[in-house]
Design goal:
Order of helices and strands: HEEEHHEHEEEHHE
Radius of gyration: 20 Å
Largest sheet: 4 strands, mixed
Distance between the termini: 41 Å
Structural class: alpha+beta
Strand order of the largest sheet: 2-1-7-8
Length: about 230
Amino acid sequence: MKHFIYGVIFLLINSYQYAVIFQGLKENSNVTKNTFSCPTAASGASDCSNADSNASGFVVTQQSPLQFFNNQSYWLRREAEKRQDYQTNQPLSGTELDSKMQSEGWVAMGSYCILISTNSVLTDVVMPNVTASGDQVKVVVQLWYNGENNIQLWSQDAAVMSATQGFSVLISSDQDDQISQLPVLSASSSKLTQNSKLSDGKAFLNQIGLQINNRTNQYGKANNSPRSVKIQLA
């Protein structure tokens, strides 16, 4: 038992040695819909909550990735209220109403997720040209969108930093052009085949689709929603 406890302590110390410190999400002013933080118009904590509440100072290790989800229920309520207002007081309907809503950024109203990880399963695949050495740590952040009956990778970034260094994630509505450089996920590679060999690590991970280029035209229309994530070093 004593040896087991010593082993656990050693793993914890070693894990922390190669850890980095998450210091929060930051949203650009051009993100006015589907935010991860509460807009100033939010009526109270029961109506909206910041996605990274109590996460500042979190130690990110290989075993402890972070996931943040936007305030989808809040924004779906605001969308429904705005639509009802236009139908009642304008009044607007049909394509005219849809055009009005889209012009104000009420598009791509699905769920958004930010994933932050230092796990080699992800870091070895995403931006492989960004490499860590010695006691450095590679961090990957991805922005996923769940809409139009599929999960889409909308943005990603990777950075190398010193162990125990702090970083934050900037969210903006700018388009991430780096995603367009990724290979499009074909029908044959969109799911694992029976002949897949787990020993062939790269092929297996590519088939999982950890950095797929499957954005739809909703991405281009969502000019007020989160479309880009960038790592900012402290």
